[in-house]
Amino acid sequence: METPHPLPWPVLLRYDQAHSRRIALPLGGIGTGTVSLGGRGNLQDWEVVNRPAKGFQPKNAFFSLRTATPDGQVTARALEGAIPFDLYEGWSGSPVPNAGLPRFPQHSFEAAYPFGRVRLHDPAVPVDVSLEAFNPLVPGDAAASGLPIAVLRFVLTNLTGQELQASVAGSLDNFIGQDGSTGASSANRNEVRRSPGAQGLFLSSAGVHPRAEQWGTMALAALSDGPATFRTAWANLSWGNSLLDFWDDFAADGQLEEREAEGVDVPTASVAVSTRIPAGGGAAVAFLLAWHFPNRLSWRAPERNPKTWDDRLRWIGNHYCTQFADAWDVVARVAPQLETLERKTVSFVDAVCRAALPEAVKEAALFNLSTLRSQTCFRTPDGYFFGWEGCQDKFGSCFGSCTHVWNYEQATAFLFGDLARGMREVEFLHATDAQGLMSFRVNLPLEHGTKFGVAAADGQMGCIIKAYRDWQLSGDRAFLERIWPQVRKALEFCWIPNGWDGDRDGVMEGCQHNTMDVEYYGPNPQMGFLYLAALRAGEEMAAYLGDKGFSANCRGLFLNGSRALDANLFNGEYYEHRVVPPSHAPAKGLRWDMGAADLSNPDLQLASGCLVDQLFGQFFAHVCGLGHLADPAKIGTALNNVLKHNFKATLANHFNHMRSYVLNNEAALVMASYPHGNRPTRPFPYFNEVMTGFEYTAAVGLLYEGAVEDGLRCIEAIRARYDGLKRSPFNEAECGHHYARAMASWAAILALTGFHYSAVDETMTFAKTATATEHFWSTGSAWGTLSQRPTGDGIEVNLNVLNGLLRLRRLILSGGGSVERTPGPALQEGEGWQAVLPSR
User: Fold this and answer.
1) Residue 252: how many other CB atoms lie within 10 Å
2) What 3-state DSSP class applies to 344?
3) I want to staple 533 with a disulfide (CB 3.0 to 4.6 A). Which of 337, 388, 480, 617 is the partner?
4) What is the mean pLDDT of the chain?
5) What torsion do the CA atoms of 33, 379, 372, 408 make, to the nearest 10 degrees?
6) pLDDT tens digits, one per residue of 87-102
7) How far is the C-alpha of 417 from the C-alpha of 779, rounded, in Å?
8) H helix intervals, 335-439
9) What is the pLDDT of residues 212-243, one digit of tens each?
């Protein structure tokens, strides 16, 4: 029996009990940190205190259920699934806190990010339970998507023919002062608070220093105005009797009695609410977790060189904390909005799930959005958005919104355009110096933004392309005019003496630091195609702003470079790297400290290898609508040979001397292959590895070139590895958890639908389909659906705006013509446009 939900949630994937073993779904907003919903309904990885904290779990952080029948039969359970046997180890028997609590023996998991549902069943319990957890995710609305909350709703379904009484209690240790790595709690306190529609406990501290990273507030609230009981602390008893006392109290009548706990620095807060469930019916009990930790420090971890970096310079703060006074203010202000926020989130996720796309594509695109909410990302009080490359267990991995990593991801621009444009402002207005050298890692605070002082060839070119993309998506002329002088300098920087293209022939040949963490010497496809795309972007931006001479210069370099890459780097199968030792010392700021030491015979090069993302620049050009950068036939051939040479149906026989993100008989695209046996003795460091962001780049490239089956094969291989049994579906790793590059997966939606949007020209393009289909689209500020239906008279199209404002004058179906819209105001939420394109 299933209780109908007032707002049905879309479900993309279902995981049985075995395949929920490694699930950890991050619950939290963009830039706020998260707590993760485990596959059995447990809350784990409390990463809400300004840093990653894998494995950090307060001892008492769980929910409990008590049921009672009219004849007095009582059951009590922790609202979690059974603990797997492989977690029974160690001197205490199990590392899981409170492992001895009775739990539900059967569970399963359903997901369509950000929604996660855990189904719990126990034949001895008269109700089935669905734990529904989410955090609002509304594209185009960074504020609604950046709330420091986790919503937890327990839907109880009565399996009996009689009315039941049920109570649900939530408990949480007040761990303020701790972050999973450092700090200590001191004189923490809990107090009962009430607001319209919410009542619960406000967690604060009287002993933790207000400037400490770990200082802040939390809240645990029941979303109810009905009867509720509270404990501001558990009894301070020895031999585990604190838990015994709580369990006896709750199991007795489903209510809680207050306890005194003098001198306890980490008091446990609990709130319980009761409800009656009619025979065969259902009821829902909802809770809200909220947090507010304002003291984020800069990239430098406090445990490293603590005396060499002034605390006043290290403090950068959190944007979300400027929006709320404390955690209870979050509860009071968000609770009344939750119904609307949930409806908008459901609308977004449902539109993606209903789209005519393969399941693996929707899964890869949606589930990797969780990275935006992880501790990989944060926002400073001025609203700017920053990111590590990923997260190590206890601290960020590789600081500075690294340009060459963040180039790959496409989700931010198409879902949160204001955040993407803010990143461009940081890159060009704060990280690019007067010469045009863009520090590929930006220091914080921003007055130190250029002090890293090293430019990455691929990173800098990608940022130029992103400037074009984000201007096109927004149509914001003022934004383009604001950054253009520095964009132009960043492109001109290619032409400095002994630079990337010092001879100005349209080909990068100089010292090229790149995302492989080394420098390449000589022309190569990885930087070569990015440079071509940047030249095309520069050409278009300059022409729009009336800078005709610069536009023509970019055009000439592009044409010459395009011909040169085809003539000199294409070996008949793929584009390869021609190693050319530099004849002069590289210009200042082009070398880092991890590459070749002997420049007369540089090692750590790609050389003749077949590189997985050799056509990343072409990928980017397609995303931006810039067309083919070289001979389309050669590009298609090269991508087909990436698949032929680099795809491994099993890694069982694959040697890898570096990090292993793929194991045993799993399938994957390896970083590079040397099919003709001429591998350098020491190639670039990662050539034997597998990393999903690079795999997506090749896969999406194949999709754009029409090799749909091959591209999907690569994407399906990735998601088969993140199946819940071996790895969490919400944590694609590279150099750390929640790696930013994996959000390249969003581009698969663009490639398969043929979607392109220009707010500058007010045009939207899709690929024509032979059958009736429904697409999802998003521009960074608006999103909705477009359906196509062939008719006897042509193609009937129906465009709907589900959120935001859309400026649209012309709709194009590639291969199917176009239709003009009568000039008028922008389309708003709930509005649409219907038209028929005549048969051709």
Assistant:
1) 12
2) helix
3) 617
4) 95
5) -140
6) 666 666 778 889 999 9
7) 7
8) 338-354, 359-367, 403-406, 411-415, 417-425
9) 999 999 999 999 988 999 999 999 999 999 99
